[in-house]
Amino acid sequence: MSTEEQFLTDAELCKRLRISAPTLRKYMKVGAKRGRVGKARDVQNIDRFIVCGKRRWLKESVDKHIHGE
Questions:
Q1: Which partner for 7 in 14, 31, 40, 56 could form a disulfide, CB atoms 3.0-4.6 Å apart?
Q2: Measured between alpha carbons, how far is 50 from 18 in angstroms, rounded to an integer?
Q3: How much is the pTM?
Q4: Which CA distances in Å does 49 have to 15, 34, 46, 55, 68?
């Protein structure tokens, strides 16, 4: 697996979680609403970091989040 395949961009994360980019920014700022059902809740808990000023998400952490692990 190459290095690029281990990380996701914001757009790729949004596609996997089926949310829009503005929704992702909102969740990162204030968190998801209490009681929200779905894969998008608690995106703040997904491992991420900044590379050259761009946010990247650890694919393994995203997969665990989606599968509820």
A1: 56
A2: 22
A3: 0.77
A4: 19, 25, 10, 6, 21
